[in-house]
């Protein structure tokens, strides 16, 4: 593990300190977790954009998924 130095504004640091105390964790652990979540979020956004580009380049053809229409029946309610 590496030690880093970072700049953070006072209000954000106060919020982090308040929450880490409530969660009984450390700043470092909290920030590591937040960074991991941010990286996962970014990866998901990239996949969603890739998915959208794929459908824009190769749109669904009319009738392409009609075979699945019967599978969507949930019965009478």
From TrEMBL:
InterPro entries named among the record's database cross-references: Arc_rbn_hlx_hlx (IPR013321), CopG (IPR002145), Ribbon_hlx_hlx (IPR010985)
Organism, scientific name: Candidatus Chloroploca asiatica
Ribbon-helix-helix protein CopG domain: residues covered: 3-39
GO-annotated biological processes: regulation of DNA-templated transcription
Protein name, as recorded: CopG family transcriptional regulator
Organism domain of life: Bacteria
Taxon lineage: Bacteria, Bacillati, Chloroflexota, Chloroflexia, Chloroflexales
Gene3D superfamilies cross-referenced by the UniProt entry: Met repressor-like (1.10.1220.10)
């Amino acid at each position: 593990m590496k030690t880093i130095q970072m700049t953070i504004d006072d209000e954000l640091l106060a919020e982090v300190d308040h929450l880490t105390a409530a969660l009984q964790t450390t700043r470092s652990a909290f920030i590591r977790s937040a960074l991991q979540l941010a990286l996962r979020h970014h990866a998901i956004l990239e996949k969603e954009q890739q998915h959208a580009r794929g459908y824009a380049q190769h749109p669904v053809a009319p009738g392409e998924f009609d075979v699945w229409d019967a599978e969507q029946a949930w019965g009478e309610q």
